[in-house]
Amino acid sequence: MNKKQLDILEKAFSAQIDSAMKQDFASAQNNTFGIIQTKSKIAKQLCDDGYLDYIQINFGRHGLPVTIKGYALTIKGNLAYCTSDRCKLDEAKQND
Questions:
Q1: Which residue, 16, 62, 68, 94, has most beta carbons within 10 Å?
Q2: Which pLDDT tens digit goes with each residue over 60-88?
Q3: What is the pTM of this model?
Q4: What contacts 43, CB < 8 A, 6 or more positions away?
Q5: What is the tens place of the pLDDT at every residue in 48-60?
Q6: What's the rounded Cα separation, in Å, for the pair 1 and 13?
Q7: Are 57 and 67 in contact (CB under 8 A)?
Q8: What whole-number distance in Å separates Cα of residue 88 and Cα of residue 19?
Q9: How far apart are the C-alpha atoms of 66 and 64, rounded to whole Å?
Q10: DSSP the chain
């Protein structure tokens, strides 16, 4: 994978972790849905290759419906990112 592809997978991984750590799962402002929003052609290609899923989340408050669209990391994408050299470098920094 090239740097741009890993950048997108890293953002999706971070969004997924941030979502899991938040208590308020109905807050789009804090991106607690575990998705990234981008119009990147690289993200579309990663989706076509099975590393990301394009999803829509419908939610609303006070009778106002809102649809949030974005990309979520798949198991294949999680594996690709976590076995990349970039993820291994992050682990090495934490162990120092």
A1: 16
A2: 777 888 888 999 999 999 999 999 988 77
A3: 0.78
A4: 8, 36, 52, 71
A5: 999 999 999 887 7
A6: 15
A7: yes
A8: 22
A9: 6
A10: --HHHHHHHHHHHHHHHHHHH-S-TT-GGGTTTS-B----HHHHHHHHTTSEEEEEEEEEETTEEEEEEEEEE-HHHHHHHHTSHHHHHHHHHHH-
